[in-house]
Write a structure and sequence with these properties.
The chain has 191 residues and is an alpha/beta fold. The chain is 33% helix and 23% strand. It has one domain: Class I glutamine amidotransferase (GATase) domain (Rossmann fold, 3-Layer(aba) Sandwich), CATH 3.40.50.880. The chain is built from 6 helices and 11 strands. The strands form 3 sheets. It has a 7-stranded mixed β-sheet with strand order 5-2-1-6-7-11-10, sandwiched between helices. Strands 3-4 form a two-stranded antiparallel sheet. A two-stranded parallel sheet has the order 8-9. It comes from Pseudoramibacter porci. This is DJ-1/PfpI family protein. It holds the Pfam family DJ-1_PfpI.
C-alpha cells in the first residue's frame, strides 16, 4: 500500500484538499493529512474548520509515495512559508517522489524550482510563478511524476489520476464507476 501526505494550511481550498483525500482513500491509498500550522485544526478559505490527522513536526515522511498541495491563495502562502515543507519538497524531488498540486498549489513547487522542464497546469494568474515550466492550461496534466490540476472543477479527475498512478488504472476505474463519474453515467435532459 502506498502512503500519501496531503498538506493543510489556513486559507486552503477545503474541497480541493478533501476531494483528493477522499478519492485516494477510496482507492486504497493510506492518506495522512498534515497541518503546517501551529495547531492540527486549520480554517479554510471559506471559514470551515478542519482537523488534520497530524502536525508537520510529528510526521516521518520516509514512506511517502505522494506529497499533495491543495490550492487557495492564503493557503498556498502558508504552505510556502513553512520551512520544513519547503525542505521536504526539495528532498522528495531529488528522491523522485510523486508530487501533486492543484489550483495555486503548483506555485509552491514552481518557486522551489521543482517544475523546471515539466508540463504543468495551474489556476489562471499563477503561471509566472511556475519557474521553467510549460504551463498548458489543461484541466489535469501528468508529466512523469509531477501531477497538477487547474482548479476545483478538475479535482475528481485529478484524484482518480493519482489513484491510477499509485494503485493502478484498474483500481482507479473501479473508484470512478462507484462514484458515478460523468464518464460512467449518461446525462439526459427532459423538457
Amino acid at each position: 500500500m502506498h502512503h500519501a501526505y496531503v498538506f493543510m494550511a489556513d486559507g486552503m481550498e477545503e474541497t480541493e484538499c478533501l476531494t483528493i483525500v477522499d478519492l485516494l482513500r477510496r482507492g486504497g491509498v493510506d492518506v495522512t493529512t498534515v497541518s503546517v500550522m501551529k495547531e492540527k485544526t486549520v480554517r479554510s478559505s471559506h471559514g470551515v474548520s478542519i482537523k488534520a490527522d497530524k502536525k508537520f513536526k510529528k510526521v516521518d515522511f520516509s514512506d511517502a509515495g505522494l506529497l499533495f498541495l491543495p490550492g487557495g491563495g492564503l493557503g498556498v502562502q502558508n504552505l510556502y512559508a513553512h520551512k520544513g515543507l519547503r525542505k521536504l519538497l526539495k528532498s522528495a524531488d531529488r528522491e523522485k517522489t510523486i508530487l501533486g498540486a492543484v489550483c495555486a498549489g503548483p506555485s509552491v513547487l514552481g518557486k522551489l524550482g521543482i517544475l523546471k522542464g515539466y508540463h504543468v497546469t495551474c489556476y489562471p494568474g499563477f503561471e509566472d510563478q511556475l519557474k521553467g515550466a510549460d504551463c498548458t492550461g489543461e484541466g489535469v496534466v501528468v508529466d512523469r511524476r509531477i501531477v497538477t490540476g487547474i482548479g476545483l472543477g478538475y479535482c475528481v479527475d485529478l484524484g482518480l489520476k493519482l489513484v491510477a498512478l499509485l494503485e493502478g488504472q484498474e483500481v482507479s476505474d473501479k473508484v470512478k464507476a462507484k462514484i458515478q463519474h460523468p464518464d460512467c453515467v449518461k446525462t439526459i435532459e427532459i423538457h
